[in-house]
């Protein structure tokens, strides 16, 4: 449930059509096309769906940070379900509305002097993975390294904007392929 054909014989599929405009069902119905290699997966999210999910996670992350009994909690690091694990890595540095993070003052109780309240600032890297997948922490650190090398050092990249950099995309894809080849019980399990 929720899976679709993503590629046939290495050619991307968009909906019911292959990259060269052929209908997928007609292609699969023709015995002359066999053997065939089919890649299944979940539908790709639109940009709006990605933004909506990121906003929702950011809110849950902020609530988790505030509700944590641990002082200086880093918020949600992992959410686990029976079908996937969501891993989050937050950088230690970042900006809060264009300026460096600074302590804010908040009164703990009426009549008491204000106490410093630190807001988490930085970039969040989120990975959804199979619950049995090993090595996600090292994958998150590798993604951060790729981001630092190919996005932050790119003079055409602006913070808080989508990353449009071919070298970033290539290196990210390579890191994900390496993690995928490691398998669910790869190094670090």
TrEMBL record:
GO terms for cellular component: endoplasmic reticulum; Golgi apparatus; TRAPP complex. The keyword Transport applies. One of its GO terms (biological process) is endoplasmic reticulum to Golgi vesicle-mediated transport. The keyword Endoplasmic reticulum applies. Core component of the TRAPP complexes which has a function of guanine nucleotide exchange factor activity for Rab1 GTPase. Plays a role in vesicular transport from endoplasmic reticulum to Golgi and autophagy. May play a role in dendrite postsynaptic membrane trafficking. PANTHER family: TRAFFICKING PROTEIN PARTICLE COMPLEX SUBUNIT, TRAFFICKING PROTEIN PARTICLE COMPLEX SUBUNIT 4. This is Trafficking protein particle complex subunit.
């Amino acid at each position: 449930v929720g899976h679709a054909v993503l590629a046939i014989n290495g050619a991307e599929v968009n909906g019911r059509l292959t990259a060269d405009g052929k209908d997928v069902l007609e292609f699969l119905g023709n015995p002359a096309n066999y053997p065939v290699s089919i890649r299944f997966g979940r539908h790709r999210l639109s940009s709006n769906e990605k933004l909506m999910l990121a906003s929702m996670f950011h809110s849950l992350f902020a609530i988790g940070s505030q509700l944590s009994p641990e002082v200086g909690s880093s918020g949600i690091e992992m959410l686990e379900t029976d079908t996937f694990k969501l891993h989050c890595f937050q950088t230690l540095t970042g900006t809060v509305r264009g300026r460096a993070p600074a302590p804010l003052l908040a009164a703990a109780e009426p009549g008491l002097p204000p106490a410093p309240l630190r807001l988490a600032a930085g970039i969040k890297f989120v990975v959804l993975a199979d619950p049995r997948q090993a090595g996600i922490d090292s994958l998150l650190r590798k993604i951060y390294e790729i981001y630092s090398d190919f996005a932050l050092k790119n003079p055409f990249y602006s913070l808080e904007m989508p990353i449009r950099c071919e070298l970033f995309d290539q290196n990210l894809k390579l890191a994900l392929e390496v993690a995928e080849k490691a398998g669910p019980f790869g190094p670090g399990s």
